Amino acid sequence: MENENIIMDFERRKRCAIEEAVFCEFKTPDQLEQILTLAKQNNKTLLFTRLNQEKFFMLSKHWQTTLTYHPVARCAVLGELPKLTNEAPPLIAIVSAGSSDASVCHEALLTLNYHGIAADLFQDIGVAGLWRLLDKLPQLQQYSIIIAVAGMEAALPTVLAGLVDAPIIAVPTSIGYGISVGGNVALQSCLSSCAGGVMTVNIDNGYGSACAAIKIYKKIVNRS
Amino acid sequence: MENENIIMDFERRKRCAIEEAVFCEFKTPDQLEQILTLAKQNNKTLLFTRLNQEKFFMLSKHWQTTLTYHPVARCAVLGELPKLTNEAPPLIAIVSAGSSDASVCHEALLTLNYHGIAADLFQDIGVAGLWRLLDKLPQLQQYSIIIAVAGMEAALPTVLAGLVDAPIIAVPTSIGYGISVGGNVALQSCLSSCAGGVMTVNIDNGYGSACAAIKIYKKIVNRS
Amino acid sequence: MENENIIMDFERRKRCAIEEAVFCEFKTPDQLEQILTLAKQNNKTLLFTRLNQEKFFMLSKHWQTTLTYHPVARCAVLGELPKLTNEAPPLIAIVSAGSSDASVCHEALLTLNYHGIAADLFQDIGVAGLWRLLDKLPQLQQYSIIIAVAGMEAALPTVLAGLVDAPIIAVPTSIGYGISVGGNVALQSCLSSCAGGVMTVNIDNGYGSACAAIKIYKKIVNRS
Amino acid sequence: MENENIIMDFERRKRCAIEEAVFCEFKTPDQLEQILTLAKQNNKTLLFTRLNQEKFFMLSKHWQTTLTYHPVARCAVLGELPKLTNEAPPLIAIVSAGSSDASVCHEALLTLNYHGIAADLFQDIGVAGLWRLLDKLPQLQQYSIIIAVAGMEAALPTVLAGLVDAPIIAVPTSIGYGISVGGNVALQSCLSSCAGGVMTVNIDNGYGSACAAIKIYKKIVNRS
Amino acid sequence: MENENIIMDFERRKRCAIEEAVFCEFKTPDQLEQILTLAKQNNKTLLFTRLNQEKFFMLSKHWQTTLTYHPVARCAVLGELPKLTNEAPPLIAIVSAGSSDASVCHEALLTLNYHGIAADLFQDIGVAGLWRLLDKLPQLQQYSIIIAVAGMEAALPTVLAGLVDAPIIAVPTSIGYGISVGGNVALQSCLSSCAGGVMTVNIDNGYGSACAAIKIYKKIVNRS
Amino acid sequence: MENENIIMDFERRKRCAIEEAVFCEFKTPDQLEQILTLAKQNNKTLLFTRLNQEKFFMLSKHWQTTLTYHPVARCAVLGELPKLTNEAPPLIAIVSAGSSDASVCHEALLTLNYHGIAADLFQDIGVAGLWRLLDKLPQLQQYSIIIAVAGMEAALPTVLAGLVDAPIIAVPTSIGYGISVGGNVALQSCLSSCAGGVMTVNIDNGYGSACAAIKIYKKIVNRS
Amino acid sequence: MENENIIMDFERRKRCAIEEAVFCEFKTPDQLEQILTLAKQNNKTLLFTRLNQEKFFMLSKHWQTTLTYHPVARCAVLGELPKLTNEAPPLIAIVSAGSSDASVCHEALLTLNYHGIAADLFQDIGVAGLWRLLDKLPQLQQYSIIIAVAGMEAALPTVLAGLVDAPIIAVPTSIGYGISVGGNVALQSCLSSCAGGVMTVNIDNGYGSACAAIKIYKKIVNRS
Amino acid sequence: MENENIIMDFERRKRCAIEEAVFCEFKTPDQLEQILTLAKQNNKTLLFTRLNQEKFFMLSKHWQTTLTYHPVARCAVLGELPKLTNEAPPLIAIVSAGSSDASVCHEALLTLNYHGIAADLFQDIGVAGLWRLLDKLPQLQQYSIIIAVAGMEAALPTVLAGLVDAPIIAVPTSIGYGISVGGNVALQSCLSSCAGGVMTVNIDNGYGSACAAIKIYKKIVNRS
Questions:
Q1: What range does the record give for the signal peptide (chains A, B, C, D, E, F, G, H) (predicted)?
Q2: Could you list the residue range(s) of the whole structural domain that residue H33 is in?
C-alpha cells in the first residue's frame, strides 16, 4: 500500500509509442526515490527529466551511483541506453539558434537515444548571422524530421520551414529578457509562423519535441 | 510593373512540399483579383483560405464563377482539385470535439485534398461525453497522423495522445467565451498537454495543420 | 492594546459553517506568535495553512512543540483534531492527476479532517493514462462531492464531470512550466470546461476547496 | 448518414445528473435545425442557451413557433418545462449585484426550471449600497445553495460568503469597461476571495452555475 | 563633480507640497551613501522607502547609526521627525483588510508623520468578517480622508466607499497567490469599483497614497 | 412588484456625498425606462452616463423629450441641473492631453455640475508640445483639485504632478491603438507615475473622477 | 473662443524636425472640420492619418474636394505635397513582408513625401520565401535607413538587420490571427530581435516610423 | 571539433556595422571560456554583456585577469578599447530619468566606446522634477542622436522628443514595482508615445540601443 500515491504507466510504449518519463521539477527527492524503487522492483529502465544537479545530489548515494546523470541535458537514466538505429544520416536533426539553447537540445537528443533513435545536432545557427544557416542547408535538406530550438524572437523555425521539405517541430526556449523573458515571445512567434508545416511544443520542452519526433519516426520506419 | 507589389512563390511545393496558399483575411478584393490574374497568367491552381462569404461576393462575377467556393471551409479553389490518393483507410484522420469546430475541420480537409491527399473526418467526439471517443477508438488507432481540433478547454488532444500511437497535430479553435474567448485557453491547454507527442499550431489554423500533416505524410509515403 | 492589529473571527463557524484559518504565507513569525497567543488565551484550536518548513522552524521552540506540523500539507494545527465522521464510504473524495499535486491534496484533506469530516484520496490518475481513471470509476461514482486536483492542462476535472453525478470542485495547481508555469493554464482550463457542474477555486487552494466541500457536506447531512 | 457530424449525448442526465444543452453562440442556424430535427426524431426536450434574438429569428418559421423563446435569458426550450419542485422556500437562491446582470440570472433560473427545480431571485443588491444586501440577509440565510452573480469588481460573493453558511457559486459577468471589460476582473476577484466556500464558474456562465447547483441539489435531496 | 549622476530635488515641497523621498529598491548601497552624503552636506532631512533590512545592514556603520530605521515600514529617516499636527481625531485614517498588509500601512503612516501629519490606523477589518468593519463604522465616518489598504480580491475599498463620505485612496497590496499573486487582482478590483469616489495608487504604494493624502490634507487645512 | 428587479439607492448622497447615477452601457432601453419611471414616481432627478445616441434614440419619445441629452458627454439628465457654486476661480480644473479626450472631460464636467459644482476645462495641452502646458501653468497652479485626462502613454498627469501642489486625479482614456488600444497603457502609466500625489480611476471613468473630486471638494469646503 | 478646445502645434517642425499631423481615428468629423478651418485660417498644409473612407465621406463636400485623399494609405493631405528630394537612389527604403501590409507601407511613404523626402518601396519579400529577400539584397544594401514592415511572427526585421549596415526601423503590423491577432506577437518579436540595430515603433505606426526616419535623414543630410 | 557547438560571427562588423557581442546571462562559465579561447585563437577583441559579478568570478583566474571588468555596466572586454572619436561635442547623448538606471546607461556607453565612439551622459533628469530636464535642454539640443533611458511610467522619451530634433532611441528599464515591475509599463509607454520620432528597444537593452546608434552614427559620419 506504501506507494499507492504513485501509479506508474509501464504500458505506455505499447499503447502510444513512447515510454513514460518522470518529470522531476515538482517532485521531492522522497517521491523520486519511491518511483525509483518501484521501477527497480518491476525491472524497468526509466528516464528522469528536469532533474537539476541540486536535486540529483539530494538523492541517496545509492541512487546517485545507480543512475547515469547527464548534466547538460539535466536528465538521468535508470538502466542502460539501448543500441541506436543506424540510418546514415539519421532521420532526425536537432537544430538550435544559439549556444544558450544547449540544455533543451540535449534533453531532446537524450530522449531520442533513450528510445533507441539516433539524431544529428546542429547548434548556434540562428538567423541573425544567416550565412551560418545557409552553409548547413544542403545537409539539413536531407533529414525527414527537424526539431528547431530557438529563444528570443525565434525566427529560425520560420526561415527553416521555407527552405526544407521536412516537418518542423519548433521548441521555443526561455532564453530572453525584458519583453521576451521566460520564452513567451519565442513561443508565440513559432505559433504565428507564416511558413507552412511548423508545429510547436511548450517552452523548453525538449522531451516533448522528441516524443513527437518518435511518433513520426515510427510511422515512417514501420511503413517502409 | 502593375503587380510588383505582389510576389508569388510558385516554386514552394518543390522547395518545401506544400503549395503557396493565399490568406485572404487581410487582403482587399482588389488585391485578391490581382493575385488571381497573376495565377491565371501563369496557368496555376491556387487555394484561398479565410475567405468569408461577404468578401467572396465582393469579387467580380467573373472570378465568382471561375472559383469553386467551399462555404463551411471558408475557402475557394482556382482550378481543379487533383485526384485523391487511395490508401484504405487514409493515413490521416481529422477529429473534432464539437460541431462548432466544423469550419476548421473542413479547412484542414480541403487543404489536404487540394494536395491530393485523402483523410477521414470524425466530428463531435469531445471528452465531456467520453463514450463518443471510446466508441471510435479502435478506428482511430489505425491512422498514421491525427489532426485534433478542439476549443474551450481542449482536453481532446491530451486524452487522444494517451490512447493512440500516431503523432497528434492539435488545432485549438476560437470556440469559447468569457475566459476562453478567442481560443487562448484552448491553445495553452494543448501546449501544456501532459501527454507526449502533441504538437500545436495557431488557433483556428486548419490550413497549417494540414501543411504539417502533408510534410509528415510525404516522408512516410516516400520512404516506403 | 498590544494585539489590536489582529482581530480574530472566532465566531466564523457559527456564522458561515467554517472555522477561521490562518494563511501564513505573508505573515511574519512575530505575527504568527501573536495569533497563537491570542488563540491560546481564548482556548481555541486553530489551523495554519501555507506554513512552509522554513517559517515553521522560525517559530519559538515553545510553539514548535505545541503545534502539530504536517509537512506534506504544509499546515500546522493548534489543539487536537476532532473525531472524524464515519460514513462508509465518506461523502467526499479528493482526486489528483499527478503525484506532484500531493501538497494541495493533503491541505484539502487536513482541512476536512480539522472540521471533523473524513474523505478518501485517489492520487495520480490523470487522463494521459486514461486507464488509471477508468479503473477507479466505479468507486468514484459513489461519492457525493469530488475535489479534483490537477495542474498542466488540467483535463481531469472535465473528463470526470462527464462520468459522475457528483459536483466537482476543481483545484488547479501551480504544477507546470513554460506556458503553464504558475498554474494559470490549469485554472483557465477548469473554468472553460465544456462539462457541466465543474466549479473552480484559486490555484493551489486546497484549503478553499475543502471549505466549499464542507459547506455542501453540511447541507447534505443536515437535511437528511 | 446526414447528421453524422453531430452526436447527441441523450444519456447525460442518467450518467451525470444534468441534461445536455445546446450552446448556440458558435453554431449556424443550419446546425441548430439539424439538432432540432434529431431531438424531435428522438422525442426529446432540449434547452438552447446563448441563442440571441437575431439568430433565433434566422431559424425557419416552423422552429420559431415550435420553440419557446425566453428573451431575457437568451434561451429557447423545445418541449414543455417540467413541474417544479415545491420546497418552500426553494433550496436555491440566485442573487445579483446589479440590474445589468439580468440575462445571466435568468439563464441560471431557466436552466434550474428546465430540470424541474425552483429557485428564488434577488436582483440588484450589490455591496456599493450595502443596506440592500443587509436588508435581505435574514431571507438569504435560509437557502442551501446560493448562486451569486456580479460584474465589475464583484465584491458580492465575498461579502455574502462571510455572512451565510450556504455554498456560494459565483458567476462573474462581463459587465464592466476599461480595465474590467469582458469580466476578467470580476472572475479573478471571485477566485481570489478571502472568504471560504466560494466556487467560481466562467464569465456569464449562468447555465454552468445552474448545472453545478443541480448536482449539489440532487445530493442534498436524494440523501434526505 | 563626483555626484553629478544624482540630482536631488530639494525644492519639491515648495513646488508640489511633498518632499522628495528616496526609493531604495533598485539603488545600490553605494548610491544610497552618495545620496546621504549629499543630503547631509545640504543639511536636509530625508525619507528612504523600500529599504529592506538586508540592504540597510549593507550601509556603513556610520549611516546605520545616523539613520532611524523602521522595520515594519521598511523605511529609514535621516534627521528628526517633525512635531505632528494635533487635530482630534486626525483628518486621516489608514484602514487595512488583513494583518499581512502591515508593511504598507506603516509606510503610509510614516510618510504622513514625516510630513508632520497625524493619522489613525485600523488594521485587519476586511469584509470576509463584515462585523469587524461595521463595528468601526461610526468611528470611520469621522475622517476626512481614508487610505484603504487591501490585497487578494480587495473588496474593502468598495464596501467602505459606499458607507462613508470621505474620499478613499485605495492601496492594493501584493498579498495573494495563484491568480492574485503580486497584487494585480487587487489593483484591478479597486479600479473597477462600482462605488463612487475610489481612487487607486500602484500596488504596495503606501508612500504614494500618503503623498496624495498630504496634498488633499493641505488643501483642506489651508482653506479653512 | 413590477420593478423589484431594480433597487434604487436614493439616499446615497446623504450617506456618501454623491448621488446615484445610472450607468447605461449594459442596460436595455426597457430597463432604463423602468428606472426613469421609478425616479419620476419618487420625484427624483437622475444622471445617466454612458448613454450613447443610438440607445438614447431607442427610448420612447416621451422620455427623449423629458431628458436633457448631452451628446459630447454621452450623458442625459432627468430634471434641472442645480445652480453652480461661484468660487472664482472654481476649485476644480479638468485638464486633457488631446482633443480626442473630449467625451471623458465633459462627462466629468457634467457630473460636477449635476452636483452643483463648477469647474474649468483646459483641453489639448499634452506634453508632446510642452509649451502648451507651460503656458497654462500659472493658471493651473491656482486650483485645489485637478482631474487630468490622457490617453496613449499618458505622461500628462506625471508632468503635472511635479509642477502643482494640488492632488491629481488621473483619468486614463481609451485613446490609443496597437499596444495602447483600449487604454491599458495609459492606465498603467498613471499608476506607475514617479511623481507623488497621482491617484487613478478606471479608463474613461470621467464620472468616477468627478465623484472623487466631489468628495474632496466637500471636505475642503465644509471645513472652511 | 469657439476653437479653444483645440490647440495646434504649428511650430513643431522648427522645434523637432517634423510637422504636426492629425490622428483621425478617435476624432469626430466635427472636430476634424474645426481643425481644417483653423489650418486654413493659418494658411497651413496638414496631414491627416488613420482617416478611413467612411469617416472621410462624413466630412462636408467642401472639405472632401479640398483634401487629397489616399485610400491605400488611409490618409488625406490639405494643400500641395512639396517637391521631393532627388538623391538617387533615395536614402530610405520601405520593405514589407506581405502584401497585406500595404496600408502601413503607404502611410509611411506618404509621410516621407509630405516632408519632401523620397523613398523606395519593396513589398512582399517576407522570409517564408527567403529567395525573395535574397534577390533584392544587393539593392537593399545601398540604403541609409530601412523601414521594415511585418506582421505575424515578424522575422523580416531580424533577418534584414543581420544582412545590411543601415539602421532598421521595425513596424510590426496588426496582420495576424489567433495568438497573433492585433499584432502583439509581431511587436514583441521585433523588440526581442537578436540582431543588433533594430528599433521598433508601435503596431501599424507607419507615420511614426517615417517621423523617426525623417529625424535621422535630416541629421545625415545636414551634416554632409 | 571541440567547439563546433559555438559558431562565432567574426565578420559581423563588415556585414552590418556592429561587432558580435556575447550575451552572457544564459551561458555557463564553461561556454564563456570556450568562446574566450576561440576569440583568443583568432586574435579578436570581444565584448561580454550581462555578465554579473557572480558569474565573472566563476571564470578561471586566467580569464578574470585577462578581461577588463566594468561593474556598473555589468560588462567585460577582451582586449583594448579603441581610441575614441573626438567630435566636440560628441554626436550621441545618453540621458536617464533616474539614478537607478545607471547600469543600462553604462552598458550603452561602453558599447559605443567599444566601437570607438564617444558619447555624453546625462543622468537623473526625469520629468517628475521637470526643471532638471529644462536646465539641460540647450545642451541636449546639440546632439544628433539621443538614447533616452527610463523606467516606471517612462515619460522622459516623450517629453524629450517634443523638444529636440534628434532621433530618440528609447530604452525602457526594469525599474518599477507593482504594475510596472519588470519594465513592461515603461516599454509600452515608450511605444505609445504621442511624440514623433521615438524608437524603442527591449527593456534594459543598453547594448541594443548603442548598436542602433552606431548604425545611425556611421551613416551620418560616412555621408559627410
A1: none
A2: 12-78
